[in-house]
Amino acid sequence: MAPRQLDLFSQPTICGVVRDIKTAMNKVVKESDLSRAQVLDLMNEFAQRHRIKLNGGNAKSLSNDVFEKWLNPEDEVRTPSLKALTVFCAVMRTCEPMGVMTKLLGSMIIEGEDVKLLAWAKMQREMKETRAKVRKIEADW
Q1: Cα dist. 6→2, 18, 19, 99, 121 in Å?
Q2: pLDDT of 10
Q3: pLDDT of the residue at 77
Q4: What pLDDT does residue 4 have?
Q5: Which residues contact 97 (CB under 8 A, 6 or more apart)?
Q6: Residues 116 and 17: beta-carbon distance below 8 Å
Q7: If the chain, 141 residues long, is cut into consecutive pieces of 10 residues, what is the mean pLDDT of each piece?
Q8: Among 103, 88, 94, CA closest to 45
């Protein structure tokens, strides 16, 4: 695949990606029916069940203080690891925070119905191309 030039003005910046991810995480929590404490409990339960360490040090679970810092867009020092971000997205059933990273690279994440729609559209295009090849062969016959 050939490299493509990204539009720097419509994309999030690398400098702001941590802030944008934290903003997205915060938005997901606020728009859910869960409290921050419930999200934290779900993340700890998920991590324990799958034997994933969410933070450094000897802590066996993610503390409320660290979780709050992860949700604070102004704190760019304390950031969730990729594992922790994945656990957050799995627990909250969204890819929105990861979408910030993919948008930075000029891509996007699709979910749910859009996956089916994309597969359908690709099949439609393949069928159209195949019909055109058949017509060409029949015309030459």
Answers
A1: 13, 19, 20, 16, 25
A2: 53
A3: 85
A4: 59
A5: 21, 24, 25, 28, 85, 88, 89
A6: no
A7: 56 76 95 96 96 85 93 90 94 94 88 92 96 93 84
A8: 88
Helix (H, G, I), strand (E, B) or coil at 31: helix
Q: In the chain, which residue ranges form alpha helices assigned H by DSSP?
A: 17-31, 36-49, 64-71, 82-92, 96-104, 113-140
pLDDT score for 23: 94
pLDDT at 22: 94
pLDDT on residue 6: 53
List the structure tokens of 9: 């003005």
d(CA 102, CA 90): 17
How is residue 110 written in tokens?
A: 């699709």
Long-range contacts of residues 118-124, Cβ cutoff 8 Å, at least 24 apart: none
Interaxial angle between packed helices 64-71 and 17-31, expressed in degrees from 0 to 180 and rounded to the nearest 10: 110
* Residue-wise burial string across 8-40, b where 16 or more C-beta atoms lie within 10 A, e elsewhere: eeeeeeeeebbbbbbbbbbebbeeeebeeeebb
Neighbour count for residue 68 (Cβ, 10 Å): 14
